[in-house]
Each structure stands twice: as structure tokens, then as C-alpha cells.
């Protein structure tokens, strides 16, 4: 890759035998890491093809959004010259059901949030 700064893919990043993205990356460049301790979003690839950064999002749509927002967007902002600062907005919420989480893995849960009256 000589004409791009960043190359991204969605799907094709998995942990099975049908994972052709990983095989191609090994031939063309380097893989810095292949899995992350995030749910959803464990299969996530990051590496370099010559001078081009590579990221591979998981095929699951929710996992792809989570990894894009949490891992890729901050890198893209940094590469575009933006000063990246952590913006944390805390919201108070009540969960109506118990949540399950694996130890050692960050879990992103889906839910609904609304303010005021809800009909």
C-alpha cells in the first residue's frame, strides 16, 4: 500500500479456518494484534502494510460499531492531526435485569436510555 494512509475492512476477521484476511496480512505486512478483550468485538485486527495502517472490523454489525467507536475512531482522529482527549459523559441509569460479564474482558451492553416521561 503506497497510496493510502489507512485501510479498513469489515468482516473476514475471525478466529476460524475461513479467515483469509489474516493469511493475506501475513503475506503483505504485519499484524500487531488480532483479538481484543472486548465483547462484542473480540475478533479485531490491527497492523501495517508497508506505510499503511490496517484495521479489520468483525463481521457482526454490533461488534463492528463497538470496535470502530472504541478503537478505530480515536486513531483516525489522531492521524488527522486532532488532539484526542477522553470525553466521558456519565449518565445515571437503572438496569432491570442482571448483566453477565466475563472477568478480564470489557463488556459493552445494549440498552435503551431516555429522559423524562416514557410512554
Provide a descriptive summary of the structure in words.
The chain is of the alpha/beta class and 119 residues long. The protein has one domain (1-111): Molybdenum Cofactor Biosythetic Enzyme, Chain A, CATH 3.40.980.10. Helices cover 24% and strands 24% of the residues. The protein is built from two helices and six strands, in the order E-H-E-E-E-E-H-E. The chain has helices spanning 20-28, 61-79; strands at residues 6-10, 30-35, 38-39, 43-49, 52-57, 106-107. The strands form two sheets. The protein has a four-stranded mixed sheet, with helices on both faces. Strands 3-6 form a two-stranded parallel ribbon. The termini are far apart. The model has no long low-confidence stretch (mean pLDDT 83).
List keywords for this structure.
119 residues, single chain, Molybdenum Cofactor Biosythetic Enzyme, Chain A, four-stranded mixed β-sheet, two-stranded parallel sheet, alpha/beta
Poorly predicted regions are none
Tally of alpha and pi helices? 2
- What does the main sheet amount to? 4 strands, mixed
Q: Given this structure, which CATH class is correct?
A: Alpha Beta
Placed side by side, the strands forming the largest sheet appear as: 1-5-4-2
Question: Class by helix and strand content?
Answer: alpha/beta
Task: Count structural domains.
Answer: 1
Number of E-state strands: 6
Radius of gyration: 17 Å
Helix content: 10-25%
What would you give as the CATH superfamily? Answer: MoaB/Mog-like domain
Distance between the termini: 53 Å
Q: Which second-level CATH architecture applies?
A: 3-Layer(aba) Sandwich
- Series of secondary-structure elements, N-terminal to C-terminal: EHEEEEHE
Average pLDDT works out at 83
| Form type | globular
